[in-house]
Amino acid sequence: MPENPILSLPESAETAYLFRHALLRDAAYQLQPPAGRGQLHLLAAELIQRLGPDVDAFAVEIADHLHAARLCGAAAGNLATERHFTEIAARRAETLYLHAQVVLLSLRQAEISEGEDLAIALGRAAKSEYISGRLAQAEELATRALKIDTPGTRDAYGLMSEICRRTGRPSKAIEYAEAALQTARTHLDEVGSARAVAAIANARYETGDVEASGHMYRQAIEMLRAHDEPRLAASLQGNLAVVLAQTGRLEEAIAMGRKAMEDSHVLQDPRGESFAASNLAALLGNADRMHEASSLYARALQLTARTGDIRSRATVLSNFASCCHRMGRLEEAVASGRQALELLREVGDLRQQGTSLGILGSIYRDLGRLQDAEALLQQAVALHARTGNRRFEALHGIEMAILFAQTDRRPKGQKLWENSLATLNRIGDARRASEKIQEMRHACAKAGVAPFE
Prior knowledge:
Layout: H1 13-20, H2 22-30, H3 34-49, H4 59-71, H5 79-95, H6 99-111, H7 115-131, H8 135-146, H9 153-166, H10 170-186, H11 190-206, H12 210-226, H13 230-246, H14 250-266, H15 270-286, H16 290-307, H17 310-326, H18 330-347, H19 350-366, H20 370-387, H21 390-406, H22 410-426, H23 430-447
Helix pairs in contact: 3-4, 4-5, 5-6, 6-7, 7-8, 7-9, 8-9, 9-10, 9-11, 10-11, 11-12, 11-13, 12-13, 13-14, 13-15, 14-15, 15-16, 15-17, 16-17, 17-18, 17-19, 18-19, 19-20, 19-21, 20-21, 21-22, 21-23
């Protein structure tokens, strides 16, 4: 390394000050040629590794120095060490929900990896982009991972299934989930197989195949418990609770949903707990326990703020808007509904956008803003048809039918009512069908028109 006048100053208070002053320290650094800078970064990484047994706590700093050394051309013989500490740093950032840092570190790891390590790094970056609500970026990274023939692609297939489910491609969602299962089975990966079965269950549920999704959730939960994966098992238990409610077993569903939330809390899984709290709130709402539901939605919003899960936060806001609507807190319902819709449009979640539009349309209908309500409900039904969300296409189709009856367009409303009610019965949601009949009769009586029969 060439001699530098600043570096060769004798130890004194003045030299100590020089290297504690950021601008002077940077000036000394800039005086070094690239090769010298690279050696300085390698030295810094080596010294940090000597700090003590818990060197992983400094993984980010070590990874940063080794990355900087590589950019300066001093990577020879250090790539394995850089990969090691970059992966540790990325995993630590993942546990802290520092999604931007996860993406940055994972992409750095991908630059110097191949095969299984490359697929895992790209998949980790894609997952963090997805949680952050950057669905297009997540899909791009997951697609890159899928081009690598390795067991690590099973997670990328699963993520692609979720992305397709959210962006209006239900058949592709099932296709990707089945590919994830095939990949996991080929490589004898039982946990990966369980995750893939859960992804298929999610996709089947969205298309209205409630019976099949319930069976698959049970299968996935059993597999996960057998292989000591309690976090995901608890999360899926919350999903199964929603399925049980649709088949008329509401009290059993509430008990299961509460257990899922408690398990996620004990397991210190705030993201899983947020899902479970939101699901349980919806179940309690179905039982007309609205104050309990409202408190749980507030809890879920706190958790999504902690985990940085933008898309899930939007979903909770949308459901909270529905809760406020039923409690008569219409101004709060509108505010939450609008905020949810804005976030969902930002992240590109078409499926949940449809649900949010329908909820907001129903609120506007009860506020007497019938023209606005009709416009939103039409958009909702169109999105549900596009995304294959048969259940909500039927539910919001019924809302449209009631609106048509209220505005002297009974023949149009009658046909929509019959088709939508038939869909609910066909997919096995007898409970909501019964609720909607009562809702329709009440709304028609209030408007002074004959009910549909």
